Each structure stands twice: as C-alpha cells, then as structure tokens.
Amino acid sequence: MVARTQNAGFIELFTPKLITVLREGYSLDKLRADAIAGITVAIIALPLSMAIAIASGVSPERGLYTSIIGGFLVSALGGSRFQIGGPAGAFIVLVLATVQAYGLDGLILATFLSGFMLMAIGYLRLGTFIKYIPYPVTVGFTAGIAVIILSSQLKDFFGLTLPEPEPGPLLPKLQVLTAALPTMNIATVTLAVLSVALIVVLRKYKPHWPGFLIAVAAATLVAWRLDLPVETIGTRFGGIPQSLPMPQLPDLSMHKVLEVLPAAVSFTLLGAIESLLSAVVADSMSGGRHRSNCELVAQGVANIGSALFGGICVTGTIARTASNIRAGARSPISGMLHSLFLLVFMLVAAPLAFYIPLAALAAILVVVSWNMAERHQFAALVRSSKGDAVVVILTFLLVIFRDLTEGIVIGFAISALLFLHRMSTSVSVQSDSHALIDADEADTVGGSHRYSQDIRTAEDIVVYKISGAFFFGAAASVGSVLDRIGEAPKAYVIDLSEASLLDSTGASTIKGFATKAGRRGAKVYLVGATPQARRLLHVQGVREPEVSFEATVAAAIEAARKAQADGLKAQESARESSTV
C-alpha cells in the first residue's frame, strides 16, 4: 500500500502539464487562444533567437534549431502550463566562452551533457533547492550578464572593423573597441539607433505590437532599398538553411567529455536557475503552480534534443513566457505551436533572412540587455542593507570581471554566511533572575526585562529560556551564557519551547552543560523539547538520569523541589542512622 502511494506521488510529481490539461478537457476555443498566443510568441522569438545565436558566437540558424526543437520539448514535457523554452540572453556569455575554448563541437557536447545533468537534478528532486538562490545573487548576476551582452553588441552596433578577433574579457574588449572607433560605419550606427528608437516607441505606445520583428523588418527594408553598406546575415553567414538537419550524436570520447565538463556544469546550474525563475514568474502572472522537478527533467530532455539537432542551450525564457501569458495562452500547446510556427518560417521564408542587417539584431540585444539590468532592483538592494549591498555588488563585479559561475557560487556563499550570522544573533537566553541576553552580547548581563513575572523560584533553582535558532552558529554564544551560571543552584531548568531550531551542535552544548552541572551535584531539567529535538538530544547522550524531560516549567520546578526534598530526607535519615 505504501509502495503504491509512493509510486502515485512520483507519477504525479513528474506528469507533464500537457497531460494534466488534456485530462481536464481541451476545447476548440482553447486551441484558438493557444494558436494566437503561439504565433505572437513566435514573432517575438524569431529575430531574438537569431540575435542570441549570433551574439553567442554561432550561426543564426542554431538559435532557430534551439527554439524549434528545445522549445517544443519544454512545452510538451514541462511542469509549467505557460513556459516558453529557447535560447536565452543569460547564456550568451557562457556559450560564447565555450565556443571560443572548445569550438562548436565542444559547445554541442556540453549542451548534451548538461541535459542529462538537468534530468538527474529533476529526478533526484533537487529542484526545490534552486529556490534558495538569494535574490541579491540573481539580481547581481543578471545585471552583470546585461553589461557583458551590451559590450558584445558594440562591434555590430557601430559597424566597427577589428584587426584581430574580439577578446572575451570586458576591459580588453573595451580597449580594442575604443581603438577601432575610427572605423565606425555611419550607416550601420544610424540603422541601429533608429531600430532601438522604433522598438522603444512601439513598446511605449503600441505594447502589444511585435516591436522586435517590426524593427528588424523595417531595418531590412531600408537597408535593401537604399543599398546601404551594412553587414547582413547573408554577407557574414550566407543566410540560413530551409530545413532542419538530421539528428547526430556529439563526440562522446572520454577526453572530450572531461574537457567540456566544467562548461556543462555551468550550463546546468544557470539553466536550472533561469528556467525555474521563469516558471515562478509564470505562476505569479497566471495564479498557477508549476512542478519544479518535472520542469527540470523537461529542460534536460530539451537540451539533449537541441544538441542532437545542432542547437545550443535551452532554458525557460522569462520575457517570452510572460508574452505568452499576456497573449492569452491556455495551455502548453501554445508553446508547442510557437515552435511549429518558427519551423514553418524556416521552411518557407528562410531566404529573406539573407538581407537582415546585423545592426538591427544588435539593436534588439541592446534593448534586451537594458531590460535585463534590473536597475531599480539593483539600486534598492544597495540601499536596503550592507549585507545585500555587498552580495549584489560583489556578484555583479565577479560576473563581469571573472566568471559567471564563480559569481553565483561566491555570491551564494557570502549570502549563506550573512544569513547564518543573522540567525546566530537572533537567538537569546533569558532567565527568571537575569535580563534577556542576545547571543552577540553574551559576555554582558544587564537590563531589567525578566523571563517571567509569574515564576518565582528558590535561589537554588535557575530557569533559562532559549529562544530562536539554537544551531552551530549560536552554540558558542549560548554556551558562554550557560557557563557563567554560578555554583549555588542545585537545579537548572532549560526551556526549549521557543527554540525554533536545535541542531547537533546545540544538543552537544546542552550535553556539555548537563555534564558540568552533574559534577557539581545539580540536576538539569529540559522543558518544551519537540520529539525531533528529543531524538537529537538522545543521540548526543542527553538522557536520563543525567537530565529529566518535563512538559512545563512549573512541572520542572516542582520536580526539582521534590528531588531536593527527597534528598534532604535521605540526608536526615542517614544522619539519624549514624547517630543510632
């Protein structure tokens, strides 16, 4: 029976939302709404997929392969009703670095491997832990990525001619681009600036119009009609093919796998964060609830599929997912249709891509990077607290000047340390005869706030109440408070009813205190310990008769007094016996 329940839970956890939607009933009206949303998103994804691919150091059709194959699989197998998968701007930095280091074959292999890693994370149900990435870290690395994307588009935006390949690091890149400013192409700059202006104006006055596609179409028409001397997809890449390639396995030799493994891990980490962040945004907009682990499995399958067809990394895309919801999508079928519409474009209208100016695609990514920067959120975090300011700024700088993965890992580590510090300073020890003692002021005793005005104990019974998270970060401070207790008390009552957390270090601290008290002939009474805390205390050796567990402070005091009375009677009986 238990096995059946577990199997049912597992199946429910990893059932794609598409199956759920079909079970609920799918009508012609829903299909019509999904078709409208699908073509709307396809119009947005068409120029964006090519622009992201070019910025990532690969040919534009690879971005289309990613949206067609990967996007279809994300929607068909995912745990979100509205998620749109495809190439994302957040990956530009990593993909470009991987192409430069290992070539296109290395990129495809890293994408292939990251797919299996994402599936493993999902099936191991680790997707839940992705949500613990702190907000300052996500804002910091997103802003850093935005700066890098912007810098990567300056060459095509200004039409610069470089004597050597463009360097990857930001500062050397800016130096090379600055030195090449005399080669600036006025026609390219004009076309790029007008494209940005058109996108901004349409977004303000006609937000439901496909600004990206209109800007690209207008720039293409102007460049063609005026025969402007600007670089296009055709002049650089020779256009895009009119069909999908045959699926092909990447080079799976052990040497190559080990070589690209770090890149695959980076793709996995960023892909999991980005896709689940997009799913959360979709939930907030639609009122739904995604299945995070199912979503990660789908992202993994999508990356494997994309790699087999020569595509690049697939992830959930926040902007396209939001557009899908705003366009009236009703189910994952809208995302599947968006991929099919892109396929139709590639099959029918691919020759038109030959004339698209690279300046127009650079303009799209300039707008994307500006929107990605999250300037207001960044400024708010800098002002909110010193800890948040340190995390967001350090993550931002590490992403720009070091490495994206390093920025995320170090930012997360510092956030965790700051959290532990805050938790450790929130714990307090309070007694019936001493003031409330904060953990970060554990070496001082003072004040007038008493533990309880209702409890009046004898001088030889001391009551201490531990509040907050009693864990390894606070154990030393709490231990120092307990160690300052004098020799006089014959019984100690430790109230754990408001200890929100007790870990093995905290339990060990109580064990040490009880041992010291026992050497002085005193008894320790523990009050309010949860069953889980009692099990942990028992593992650490905190058990009868060294300590006694009681339900309330009053019961502990009564037990202590009774024990003392019994002790006095025993002493008197012993004296009388010795006298006789």
UniProtKB/TrEMBL annotation:
Compartment(s): Membrane
Membrane-crossing residue ranges in chain numbering: 35-56, 63-84, 90-120, 132-154, 174-202, 209-226, 260-282, 340-370, 390-420
Occurrences of domain STAS (ranges): 451-560
Gene3D superfamilies referenced in this protein's UniProt entry, alphabetically: STAS domain (3.30.750.24)
Alphabetical keyword list: Membrane, Transmembrane, Transmembrane helix
Topology within the bilayer: Multi-pass membrane protein
Pfam families: STAS, Sulfate_transp
Top-rank taxon, per record: Bacteria
Official protein name in the record: SulP family inorganic anion transporter
